Amino acid sequence: MHIGQAAAKEGEFQMIMLMGYNLYLTSIVLNGDPSIEHKGKLTCLDKQVKISQLYHCEGLLLCILKEDSRFVVQNPFLGQTRWIKPRYSHRPNGWDRFIYALGYVNKESCRSYKFLRFIDYYYNAPEKQFFWYEIYDFDSDLWTTLDVTPHWRIAYCNPGVSLKGNTYWCAAGRNVDVDEVLADCLICFDFTSERFGSLLPLPFSGGDTDYTTLSCVREEKLAVILQHDESNPYELDLWITTKIETEEEKKVAFGFDDHNRHRVILIGEAGYLRGLDLVGDFGDQRCTPDLSSYVPSLVQIKQPEGRERKQESDLEKSRYDENMSRLDSL
Fold first, then answer.
1. What's the predicted TM-score (pTM) here?
2. How high is the pLDDT of residue 190?
3. Which residues are CB-neighbours of 69 under 8 A, at least 6 positions away?
4. What are the beta bridge partners of residue 265?
């Protein structure tokens, strides 16, 4: 009801917030004196489910669960969900080492959604490195191992951003010293070709003590923020990937306060800085909070068909067995 009624006023932004292993709808208003309003908890899922990670793709939410190896994709506006079961789980000491992405392929009459996940132990000696990239197809209800030999490395703490069906990450060359450079490029995964593109240089080199994050601007552009964590933690640099033809009316970035997870920080031009305090009980504070802009979507989530599930090919079974053997040996 809140989402349907929130056809936003001018200067108002709807946000999905992950806090205390739950999802909340939040509204931030920039006109006049900025304010933040907690609209309510999203309840598409069982109230007992704990969400540890959130990924957003044009109105659809991919939720990684804390105490369940399955994944769930939901459309909060339509109240639709789809549960996805992985072929295997790998959480050493309860630590999820996978990187995830939700995207789609444009077809004539609809979108075909896919779900990428991968694990990459790039910091080991070359002979001990391990990576496994696999993709789930909503239409076939099957997982497939991708033929990938990464020349890049993506930090597991660096979530990707979905833009026009594909996903982008901050990355670096695989042979670059991880203690010196954490991110100095962008890399894109194309869900149509199911391939990664070339490394695209960023206008900076983020070290291991810097903080870099990507975000999507009005589903049209990418923005990247660099925070110099040691040299000047109060200075942020922001770049936008495409030329802005007309002046942006609101140039504001949102983020959580590192020292107070109940406070959202607004950062603008000419030294503009405001803190907005969230009011309410948001449960278990051990959950790392997340904040994402949200635009309701009428996209239907395709459900598995009732017929018998397709079988994996012999090649896929062989790849799976080989990777599982190597993973078990780590």
1. 0.81
2. 93
3. 85, 86, 89, 91
4. 255, 275
Give per-residue burial for 96-131: e unless 16+ CB within 10 Å, then b: bebbbbbbbbeeeeebbbbbbbbbbebeeeeeeeeb
End-to-end CA distance of the chain: 48
Residue 19: predicted pLDDT: 80
Nearest to 157 by CA among 145, 170, 173, 141: 170
- What span, in angstroms and rounded, lies between the C-alpha atoms of 225 and 206? 10
With contact defined as beta carbons under 8 Å apart, do 275 and 255 qualify? no
Residue-wise pLDDT for 118-148, tens only, equals 988 877 677 778 899 999 999 989 999 999 9
Ranges of the chain with pLDDT below 50:
2, 6-7, 243-246, 248-249
The pLDDT score that the predictor gives to residue 35 is 79
Residue 95, both tokens:
């630590």
Distances (CA, A) of 268 to 224, 248, 253: 14, 12, 6
Helical H segments across 163-274, by residue range: none
d(CA 131, CA 38): 40
Short-list 115, 184, 117, 128, CA closest to 153:
184
Q: How far is CA 136 from CA 68, 103, 133, 287, in A?
A: 18, 11, 11, 27
| Residue (of 58, 60, 88) closest to 72 by Cα position | 60
* Burial of 307 from C-beta contacts in 10 A (0-12 / 13-18 / 19+): exposed
